[in-house]
């Protein structure tokens, strides 16, 4: 992974400088990320799409995460973050098509690094079939949809797992359909408050 420069902010998201990504995580500097959840509707059910992170990612490998997300490099605006959707999922989306959802301050102690992010989270409404998404295979190795109501139950410990349907890409680049149960510990540990706020906002649309 290229060690790019990221803008560095204070706790109140005031720009104070820039630093290499490796140092940003090593030293726990606040920085910005762009995150987008794709919302899909089928009949009277609402689903959120989750990507499966590559097993060699430097943070949270092999876990299920936001549909599309990434760091904003130094000088980029929030509008520039929409490139992540094209890069990771292969679909063209305009920033004006996104629904602002949540701005969330996230702190995560990864033991060997400290991740402090100002997460700018958006929604994108789409009923595109999952098989039509083209993944950035050095970043993303799978894509699934999970019903929002079941995600809320999982968050509230009313169920132990949720049903995920989609596909995964193996080491040869071949796709295989998956229909599996996913447990809490298989999601990126953004924290319960993060997911609660996202799910509450998603219910409105």
TrEMBL record:
Q: Which InterPro entries match?
A: NUDIX_hydrolase-like_dom_sf, NUDIX_hydrolase_dom
Give start and end of each Nudix hydrolase domain: 29-168
**PANTHER family this protein is in?**
ISOPENTENYL-DIPHOSPHATE DELTA-ISOMERASE
Protein name listed in UniProt: NUDIX domain-containing protein
This protein's species is Clostridium neuense
